[in-house]
Each structure stands twice: as structure tokens, then as C-alpha cells.
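Standup notes
- DV: blocked on the single-chain target, sequence here:
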Amino acid sequence: MLALLLMSSKCGKEPVPEPPRPEAEQTVYDYAYGSHPQQRMDVYIPYGVRDTMALIVMVHGGSWYGGDRSMFSPWFEYERAQQRFALINVDYRLDTPETAPIPMQTDDIAAAIEAVRRDFHLPAKRIAMAGGSAGGHLATYYAYKYDTQHDVKVVIDYVGPVDFTDPQYHTPGHWSWIFSGIEYIFGVPYEGHEDYYREVSPYYHVSAQSPPTIMFYGGQDTLVPYTQGERLHRRLDEFQVENQYYFYPNSGHIFNREDGLDAFNKAEIFMLQHLRNAQ
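- DV (later): unblocked, structure below
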């Protein structure tokens, strides 16, 4: 009887699953996440357990038709040296007369994240999106519209165009001239197509579920009006989304050294807070 009891006790026990094992550090430059020559990215994953590791996604600017990931290379290397988070610094397909930025470029961001999950076995359930200029538009647009699983926990927006219906863009003079370039790039005139420009504006996709956002804009910027940051700040406040807006009156589209360092430090603090606290 004792033997039978011991045997039944052993049979009834469920095997205890092994805890996730840390994996080796990886750095891969110029990784192809798609078949197009511009679908490339730099990848860094620190030593550790990948199941719970946070991921920073860096999205360069260049007016949707130019630029490359070298814009974020210094930050990529800084974060790589810290060995805290996984990183991807993404190139995406650039706009041409035959293509439009949306949804092509947001599709590429999604494909890059999916490649990290598939090829590097990183679930990426805690994501920071960081973008500058056109990359700021793409980062906020992706986070507010396409991140339906709410994996993005924080957004960092440097001088991104976020509301194409901003009256500043449609006042005769310099800003209307700038907007004519946006019309050319997107291939759609504003007049008669206002709904299209609302659709591609991150501003109109803000909801109470949008991730915390930090924004930086310059008073001397001649490419993106600082009113873009003001408008997004107010919109996020309306939905009670945590956000911080910083205005640098003496900086242009590229910040001076003092303002750039200040913005970087503020972005780091905001990002660390929300990546570490996110579930």
C-alpha cells in the first residue's frame, strides 16, 4: 500500500517548468528585415532574459524621402554601451514620386519589430518609440494608430510634424510654402482632401490609451512649426495622457549643443521611468 501511495504521489506531480535562461549579447549591423535594399536596421540585444526585455525603436528623419539611420547612430552606440535595453535603429523605404510615405513607412516599422520577435526571439512587449523630424511623425503615428496591442509604453518626439491641419501650415507665407512640399511628398493636395491629412496626422489618433509622450520643439525651426508640439501637448492633456512638452526658443530644427543635451537628458529620464514601470 505504501509503495502504491508513493507511486501515485509521484505520478500526480506536474513537472516544474525551467525558468527562462539568459541569452548572449548580440550586435548586428545592417540587418535585412525585408527584401527591399532600404529595409535595413542595426540591432543590439544585451545579455539577459529576452522574454521581459524592453526594446527601443529609433526612427530617423529626412522629410520622408531622405535621411538614414546614421541620424540615431550616436544614441544607438550610447545605449549599447549602457547594456540596459534591446535596440533597433531602422532604415525604411523612402518616398518616391510613385509611392507615398503612409502606410509604406509605418509598415516597415512594424516589419522591423516583427523581425526582432521572429529572428532574435525578443517578444518586445515593452517598447520605446523615438523619432526625429519625419521620424517623429512616424513614431507617434505608429504608436497612436497601429500599436493595437499597446506594446509601446513611451514615445519620444523630436520636432515631429504631428498635425497637418494646423492653421500655421495654411497661413500664406513661409509655412504654406513648407506645406506645399508636404503635399508634393504625400502626393495629395490639401484642399478638398482635408480628411486624408487628418488621417495621416498623429494628433487625430490620440486616445486615452495612447502611451506617455515627451516632445521637443525649437522656436527658430523653419521646417516644423513649434505649434505642432503645442497642439499635441494640449491634445494629450485632453485625453489625460501623461506627457511633457519642451520648447527651446533659441534652437532651430537641429538643436544647439546646450538645448540638445538638455533634451537628451530629459528624454532619457522619461524613457527610463516608463520602460521600468511598464508591465
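- Follow-up: Residues 1-10 have pLDDT under 50 and may be disordered.
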